[in-house]
Amino acid sequence: GDGQLQSPSGIAFLSNGTLVISEYEGNRLSLFHPGGTFLGHLGTNQFEGPWLISVDINDNILVADSDHNV
Length: 70
Prior knowledge:
Elements: E1 8-13, E2 19-23, E3 28-32, E4 38-42, E5 50-55, E6 61-65
Antiparallel strand pairs: 1-2, 2-3, 3-4, 5-6
């Protein structure tokens, strides 16, 4: 369900404080407001086991997955 994580594997923060969590088994990213409210998913089924995420200076989210995609 919304806000429930499937094997969280990485975390990063956007400049506005939004928390981004990669979900290895969920094959997606979940976003949460700084206060903890679930905001939504990104990349559902576009990743194969995302395990590492980072955010650059422009708030671009970089994802490495187990299929060697970045």
